[in-house]
Amino acid sequence: MCNQLLFGEAVKILKKQNATWLKVESLYDGYIGWVTHHLITIVDGVTALQPCQTLAPHFLNKVVYNNQSMHVPLGSSLRNFKNKKGDIAGIAYSFTGRPVDTTLVDNKVETLLQQAFLWLNAPYMWGGKTILGVDCSGFCQTVYKLVGARIARDAWQQATQGKLVRSLKTAKPGDLAFFDEKDKIVHVGILLGPNEIIHASGKVRIDKIDRSGIINTDTGERTHTLKLIRRFNY
């Protein structure tokens, strides 16, 4: 698995492989991968391209459709949602919780950090984007999504976005720090300040950071080499 699509996210179908597989491109971040056909419901292009700022607020959220319950993860898109009811791909659903409206988030840096802390100790899983398993860039992308900031999927892609921050001393909480190995970006995390970072490495954890890189708080071992820092508009 290289990535996950969350409930309500739209894709463009690029290719069909026999009766089972579809090659698709995420309309959220342009990521390309393969899914089985039963995971996709066909809609028109205008519907698929409609932005959605209403997101599921909890790690697991109970959505009801056809009098059946379905649990969808944090950051899922609640499309056409109003007065606890919505419609996605022509299917009516209800959700009784209070969704996240990213257009109404006031202090976005504070909210971003609050969301990040909730992920502590979530297990690492390559390609994951949920509390049940998440990788470093998936963690950053999903947390940023919850404050209305759209960033790319992989760490090396994220490292090409935003504004370059010249040094760790001038970095601010919420900036993304990137780490390399043999001149290739291999890791990313969210800075909490000039000395701490929250990132997914084995699990979502808080470690020390200096101008050379990350130092594991538990062992004192240097685990990642700092390459650059980026700041994003919310």
TrEMBL record:
Cross-referenced PROSITE patterns: NLPC_P60
Annotated ranges, domain NlpC/P60: 106-233
Keywords for the protein's UniProt record, in alphabetical order: Hydrolase, Protease, Thiol protease
Ranges in a coiled coil: none
Regions that span the bilayer: none
Sequence similarity: Belongs to the peptidase C40 family.
PANTHER family given in the database record: MUREIN DD-ENDOPEPTIDASE MEPH-RELATED
Name of this protein: C40 family peptidase
Organism: Niabella ginsengisoli
Classification of source organism: Bacteria, Pseudomonadati, Bacteroidota, Chitinophagia, Chitinophagales
